[in-house]
Known about the structure:
Elements: H1 12-20, H2 34-45, E1 50-61, E2 64-70, E3 85-90, E4 93-98, E5 109-114, H3 120-128, E6 134-137, E7 154-160, H4 164-177, E8 182-189, H5 198-207, E9 211-217, H6 233-240, E10 247-251, H7 256-266, E11 274-276, E12 300-305, E13 308-313, H8 318-324, E14 342-347, E15 350-352, H9 362-365, E16 367-369, E17 373-375, E18 379-382
Parallel strand pairs: 7-8, 7-10, 8-9, 10-11, 12-18
Antiparallel strand pairs: 1-2, 1-6, 2-5, 3-4, 3-6, 12-13, 14-16, 14-18, 15-17
Amino acid sequence: MKHPLADLFDGAEEIARAISSREATSDSDPTHDHVPRSSRALDTCHPERLDLVVSEVVEETPSTRTFRLRRPDGADLPPFLAGQYVAVYADGTSRPYAISSSPARLDHYDLTVRRVPSGRISGHLLDGLAAGDPLTTGGPLGTFHHNPLFHGDDLVFLAGGSGVVPAMSMIREIVDRGLERRFHLLYGSRDLGDVVFREELDALAAADPRIRVDHVIQNPGDGWAGPTGLLSAALIDALTGPLDGRMAYVCGPQALYPYALDQLTELGLPRRRIRFEANGAPADPTRQPHWPAGTDPAEEVTVTARGTAFRTPRGRPLLDALEDAGVRPEAACRSGECGLCRLRVVKGTVHHAEEARLRLSDPPAGYLHSCVAYPLTDLELDV
């Protein structure tokens, strides 16, 4: 049957004729192995796990290193979009790390990791990972990337600290592929010793008119004549000029996000032209306005999953508590976005953080994203 919308598309008649002229196939015909071919394509481009090897470690700053990862056999890695991340699996848990290398070069992924105070995985990687060591990751994921249909070709990126990592991948892609795209990076750092990729960024900006980089240093010390302080509306306006029609990306510590939104809104940039990278569970869920009044986040409740029962504070993400109890759902973004850690509540009540990107049907059916869900009462989970 002809689809009623078919005639609205250019070339519909030619496509219909091509389809009608194909020979009939059957599942028993070995020359038409659609299912195996589809499975191979999915495994190649969207693998659940990648067993990689560290080929090189580069010290970027005293607190930051880049780990270059390759396949043991040297084959290309799955394609990705500049700005995406992979989940790194280690020490019984996982953390997402943005890829800093160019998507034009698939013989390796570069993961640039900054030490987080008391960080379970950043410390594990920075203190224990060396060239030649194996490392397991997931495939590339994430929605924080350039969309040429909607984002245009004149971009502004506000980065703070390690938030420069996805910007580095975007810049490298522009250079490697010769893209007709303008990219202005405003990169805020605590001090000059804290600037990741400084030499390369400055060299690329000096050599390529499409790339502009402005470092903004909070505590510059002697010898710095550039911008200082925070990425305020006045400073953004002075450095970028009018933002009319431009797309702004924001990536950095959690505190940067509401601040950057206020500054960009003050400059008249509509919310739809501002993109934020997902950045973990809220540091304090009780500060969100819909946290139930009078609910003590330190009080413990009982969670039961896969026949295991354990106690956990209300203010701790369910995913973290499950992992420590030996129950390990699939997970990647740990920010409420990807949905891989989606579970169902059989009994009990949870708090969904603002970061949870739930389907409309999830709350009525009892589903949650465990990375940004908090147990308010005793829970029974279907994991």
